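>> received
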Amino acid sequence: MVKYSDIIRIPVKEREEAEKADSSLHFSALNGFGLSSNVNTLNEQKEAENIQQLYSAFAHYLVEVRKQVNNNKSFDIKQAVDTMNHLLNTPDLIEKFYQSTTLSSYNNNEDYLISHMINVLIYSLKIGTGLKYTVDKLLELGLAALTYDIGFFKIPENITRKNGKLTESEFNTVKRHTEIGKNILSQFHAEHPMISRVAYEHHERKNGSGYPLGLKDNEICEYATIIGLADTFDAMIHNRPHRKALAQYFSVKELISSKNSLFPSRFIKTFLDEMGIFPVGSYVRLNNMETGRVISNTKIHPLKPTVNMMFNSRGERLPEETIIKLEGHPVLYVTGAVSKEDLSPEQ
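>> returned
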């Protein structure tokens, strides 16, 4: 069983070392622990362009699928399979895709549903990787994650984009997207039997509180549980018409607190192993009161992420952003998460 107190507890030795740190430390004196931002700049730029092209390929595919679905026409699944295979068969691309899209702005466009489905794809593949899925299983999980919310394409926008709480009738209409998605994807059942089932079951929950059937525990297929977890997390960290976004850290905390009722502990643990206590994109404050953004994590030291330091203790932008790998730093550590609302106007 995953205990939140166990996860966030800082080892005594680390805490004792951290307490020796002067709160007035500045990064000008700590360059030895920074990572040069000029190393392999051209290669990194090329890699970022390739990842953006991959993101665009998934986005354009989903836009075309939505068009076909709204016109009651079938669509080609082979393009999704080919793009997914490219992602899965390129070493380390899942991790790079995750880090790049989480930190970039092109996944925050106005087309929330498209961005949301791609984000869920990325998180689901991360979890599947942590579960040691084979490439074949990752392919099926990825296809299911890319298409799981396809039924939403048939829900009226005056409901999906409504500001404020949905009425009971409107919510019942929204809930129909699971059955709509299952029916649309049933045409691919012969080659990909799981994708229609996942579309139908991704809102089922461990304690039976989900819909449409109120399934419990092992009655829910594993892919649907993974994608349901990824879907819940991404919905938490992005603004929606009826709910403001939570910071990633607080979303993680909320998911952990629900582990006994909504999702099995082993999936929560794998999620934490892969995403970290402070997921990529989180804003954190260090013990020197300076603020930065998490750009990568380590499974060995989840409380010691790599952080791009951006603002000093007064909320002023640092003259030069510095990347600090806390895992190798003797005195600096994260004191807590920072939400965007808590940042100063300049930040």
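>> Residues 49-157+167-275 form a domain with the Hypothetical protein af1432 fold (CATH 1.10.3210.10).
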